[in-house]
Amino acid sequence: MCGIVGALGNKNIVNEVLYGLKTLEYRGYDSAGIAIYGKKLTIFKNKGRVKDLEKKLLNKKINNKFAFAHTRWATHGEPSKKNAHPHNVGAVTIVHNGIIENYQEIKNKYEFSKFYTSDTDSEVIAHLINFYFKKTTNFLDAFILALKELKGSYAIAAFCNKEPDKVLVSSFNAPLILAKNNVNIYFSSDISALLKFSNQFTYLKNKDIGILNLNSFILMNNKKRILKRDTFLTNLSAEDTSLGNYEHYMLKEIFEQPLSVDNTIKSLIDKNKILSSAFGEDSIKIFNNINHISLIGCGTSYHAGLVSKFWFQEYSNLTCEVNVASEFTLNKKIKNTLFIAISQSGETADTLSAIRNIKKSNLGNTLSIINRESSTLQRLTDLSFHTKAGVEIGVASTKAFTTQLISLYALAICIGKTKKLINISSEKKLVKTILDIPKKIKKILANTNKISTLTKHLNGYSAVIYIARSILYPIALEGSLKMKEISYLFAHSYPSGELKHGPLALISKGFPVVCLIANNGLKNKILSNLKEVESRGANVIIFTNDKEVFNQNKKNSFFIDVKDSNLNPLLFNIPLQLFAYYYAKSIGTDIDKPRNLAKSVTVE
Ligand code: F6R
Description:
The chain is α/β, with parallel strands linked by helices.
């Protein structure tokens, strides 16, 4: 995890780097630091947020040639000033995102322990470059030699005060991008930090080395051969990352969902047809050959996979399994499997690792659903669809999830169509229901007061259970994940039929139970489960699209206007996001940056 950002040039360097660092706080926010070079190198760092670092820098921002900064999500060593980056050893200063798996081995081999000042894995990089610099007296050679010994993942920026005309950068299995404008040169973990300064970016490929100076940058490999890398243009802008009039990014992003879904639909559908080309050039060839689908993701993206399993079974008539990426194993090879990786960031280490293993073992074709164009996952997979959620900043994923769902729904139909299971007129009907979704989301968002009132049922309790059945069970999982993440309330989900097999023992008078009731063939079964908890004193909160259930429970229920059972997940999801949001707000947690979490999880 962690975010790094830097700039070289002559204008506004420190202000721009601090601005960029704030936008990277989603990657970690337990400590922050910056190295600034004007006439000499100065390092500032602290435990806590970028805004605290900023206070230290007041009046120290002028006449600097470069600055690079880091915001940390602790892995090795507690959040503290001494563990914050940059790390300086002798002539060398570095910032690092990733994990150096063999840092202990290197520390022992070169006896760095005596001089070690932090508990981090990252500090070893500064020691190692400094060690080689003393031997070679050449910064680039020292950098290359040090990189060769590192195992794990890294995005590194390094500075040597004996060669202050340059900054060296490199990355391996961690994102790093370069950009420039007429005045400055930039690097960052993510384009969002730089959208204010440029819209043209160059991604480093694994092990590329960048040499950056005040006016330009070049890329080379570790044999010093110059490399050419494509640049890509984005139409995202800095406004996409602004809070506007909202109190929290999470709320803003919940309210952006009609637009995000609409934008996503526009790149999936044309003239009542789902475009197979939206998933990539070879999609038809690949879709024709698949017999099995294996979905891979983490957290919220995993939940999107769980929902879509129902759609792949129904519309594509395929067997389908869903895997938590960190648990993915290669032991069951099924011929003609399409592996679908779902990831908002496209940079999640667990998901990338699963896909890399699949590719290495040549197990089948891969497709990614990502919300970041040119992300590592997109570049790794054979086919890809870029959801148009726009930049998501709140750590708890909302609009990205909804656009993942709509994309997977369209993909299931598209595969079914390619396999001739869905004819033109059925496709047209399905497309019409998709086109209606943004309107229906808007309708839910117009009625948020009721949801806010329902959160009162949670007051005074230290846990809540969510129950649902079938395709809504993953939505209960997602709803309870949102609740845990942002309110720290212990929230757990069960398929409602499972209660009697154990969890019912948890229910006592007043215990809150959130119940998702769909107006379909399962209604009576879940109503029986509801009775089971009610008769044991549970305090029930109902989300339903069944008018009768709603009318009988007006005080403690919320009505969702959706008729098509297969689309229930898309709409039931929205009030659950708001339910978690309003509860977290009522107890005053840090909603956009909940404790212990980061948005882009780049460690395994
Ligand atoms: C929860 C949340 C996480 C992410 C997970 C995977 O609100 O955002 O559970 O879904 O870390 O991230 P991506 O989708 O970037 O792979």
